[in-house]
Amino acid sequence: xxxxxxxxxxxxxxxxxxxxxxxxxxxxxxxxxxxxxxxxxxxxxxxxxxxxxxxxxxxxxxxxxxxxxxxxxxxxxxxxxxxxxxxxx
Length: 89
Description:
4 strands, 26% strand
């Protein structure tokens, strides 16, 4: 199991488009990928679960990857958050 804490920098939070991008990215990996937000675990492969969490800007998120490709998944998901899932483009 690998984990990393980050701060969400998207000004409008994880609304529909970035939530969909996150879920699409997470689905590429075989490992389980969860986000821990305010002590709640969220399946990162579910757009609905991500959106239902209502994650706002400046929220701390722990990314947890557990499984065969956890290292690659954690790097990719962290990079997605750093790039704001394309929100600034």
